[in-house]
Amino acid sequence: MLGAVFVGNGKVEVKQFPDPQPGPGEGLVRMAVSAICGSELHAYHSPNGSQGECIGHEMVGTVIAVNQTRTVKVGDRVALQIMTGCGRCYYCFRGDYEHCADMGYISGGHAELIAAPEMCCLPLPDDMNWEHGVLLGDTIGTSYRALRRLGVNASHTVAVLGCGPIGLGMLALLRFLGAIAIAADLSAYRRDLARKLGAWQVLDPGSEDIVGRVNSLTGGEGADVALDCSPSQATLAAAFDCVRKFGRVGLVGEKADSTIHPSNQFIRKEITALGSWYYSPADYFEILDLYRRGLRVDDLVSHRFSLAEADAAFATFASGQSGKVVLVR
Description:
Blueprint: E1 2-6, E2 12-16, E3 26-35, H1 41-45, E4 58-67, E5 77-80, E6 83-84, H2 90-94, E7 104-105, E8 113-117, E9 121-123, H3 130-135, H4 138-150, E10 157-161, H5 165-177, E11 180-184, H6 188-196, E12 201-203, H7 210-217, E13 223-228, H8 234-242, E14 243-252, H9 262-267, E15 272-276, H10 281-292, E16 301-306, H11 310-318, E17 324-328
Parallel strand pairs: 10-11, 10-13, 11-12, 13-14, 14-15, 16-17
Antiparallel strand pairs: 1-2, 3-4, 3-8, 3-17, 4-5, 5-9, 6-7
């Protein structure tokens, strides 16, 4: 089979790999669409690349072979939730495999085939197209879990700091929920996408005071909820500064480090803050219900490439001049 690898310093090659074989309790899935995730850029820019390993973890496809599976059969259309666990602990019984002490994950979605444990194979409805299906995973799933835990509804004004894939997923959900969204991003391209996704106001951190603008737009009170959806160190402090007293701050996505001033930004404002990492199978089924009720995701994708064009696809995504980028088989 063909699969994409990071060869280092921002280059991708598509190479020949042996076809994977499903082990006991696994299905062999032929990929239909995979999507590029912002978290992949760390290895993409690294001089070491992916060290010969096939990449990609947002993926949908069709099961073409099985090995001793109970719930997955040949012909099933599936969306792959990549986390695995022991299946016996508190977190696994909750469906939160990412917190299991034996947590693992599957990777290799930017390829033609992947062998996946059946616990990772979520059913994709027959009438849903592949592109929408891949978006309902990491992009919408991670965003939805955070908004659900924060209790966001139509009465809230929400500041979305960072309009990469997660921030754009937030905006799609906020539009569906009827909440007022204020979006901020350095990329003019992504600010335009934020407008298309229904943001009430779109701000440029490179030319204006984001905190001052959010406070002005909310009558001096601040946003009810602020979402830090950027790897930038600056956005976390901005989220605490632009949220109102007794407001809520969500840290979503990956951020290696940042600095806040707890007394002024957190304690004295009596803020509630939470971190949100991934999504669970239960979240996925709730998202399917939202999709049936009118959640629109098609305008999240800005570029489509073939697997053979993976190098160009990653270069486009890494430029910041894109929304969601997908590889279509």
